[in-house]
Amino acid sequence: MKRTAGILLLSAMTLMTGCSGKQDSAKSGSTAESSSSSMPQRYELKSGIVHYAPMVIMGIKTVQTLYFDDYGRREARESVTDSNIMGMTSHERKMDITDNDAVISFEVEKIVNGKDETSKEATKTSMKDVREMAMKMGSAFDPDEMKKNFDYREEGTEIVAGVTGKKYSISLNKEKTDARVYGVLYKNISIKSQMGGITMQAEKIEENAAVPSSKFEVPAGYTIREVNLEEEMSGAGLPVNK
């Protein structure tokens, strides 16, 4: 599942830039296992909601919203995608939840040409696997070392959604240092990212907002399938260093 591997890889990169880090049934109201001390705080705000501007790529419109609590130890990224390609209409809403040491992804709804094709399966991956994968990609999961390996650069500041954030850039290919990914962080929250011609940018930020606990829960009736990150990335065609 390419989407799951991509989300996990993004989580590893976010941890880097933000630092200065069997099958069973889901019960109603269940969340990923929590342990507040198992993961350092990611953001400098206790809670918040970040609304990102719609992205339209080749006729496919995607709107994302980020919800977080406990200084980012719990976060949920909601993606709503609508498309109408060659007469085929599709509406999808997906959730990617990070709760301390677990990442859970699932479809909330998927309607294709008026037919409900929503999967009732959620995938769960350990954040420990994400950290181990980051170590393989970097040499050590040390912020300073990883910033060096990815040619991390401070690029000044930029105003996004009415706030001033720190702009940075990284190179994902040491052989092509001019091919860079740019981003803007506000209190360690990603409020803008740009790679090639694709830009995701916040348009509204609600600081210290009350986030419903349901945003971090797997709906009743779903099963949770645990996945291996290394196998996911290999299956998605992403490089995995042994």
The ordered H/E elements are: HEEEEEEEEEHHEEEEEEH
- Specify the biggest β-sheet: 15 strands, mixed
Radius of gyration: 18 Å
For the residues shown, what is the average pLDDT?
A: 80
Shape: globular
Low-pLDDT residue intervals, each spanning 5 or more residues: 1-11, 18-37
Number of strands: 15
Number of helices: 4
Percentage beta strand: over 45%
Task: State the end-to-end CA separation.
Answer: 21 Å
Structural class: alpha+beta
Chart the SSEs and their pairings.
Elements: H1 2-18, E1 23-25, E2 48-52, E3 55-57, E4 60-69, E5 74-85, E6 88-99, E7 102-112, E8 115-116, E9 121-126, H2 127-138, H3 143-149, E10 153-160, E11 163-171, E12 180-186, E13 189-195, E14 198-207, E15 223-226, H4 229-235
Give a written overview of the molecule:
- This protein has a 15-stranded mixed sheet that branches.
- It is globular, with a radius of gyration of 18 Å.
- It has a domain at about 1-140 and about 205-235.
- The chain is built from 4 helices and 15 strands.
- Strand 11 and strand 12 (about 180-185) form a beta hairpin.
- The chain has helices spanning about 1-20, 125-140, 145-150, 230-235; strands at about 25, 50, 55, 60-70, 75-85, 90-100, 100-110, 115, 120-125, 155-160, 165-170, 180-185, 190-195, 200-205, 225.
- It has about 240 residues and is of the alpha+beta class.
Short recap of the structure:
The chain is of the alpha+beta class and 242 residues long. It has helices at 2-18, 127-138, 143-149, 229-235, and strands at residues 23-25, 48-52, 55-57, 60-69, 74-85, 88-99, 102-112, 115-116, 121-126, 153-160, 163-171, 180-186, 189-195, 198-207, 223-226.
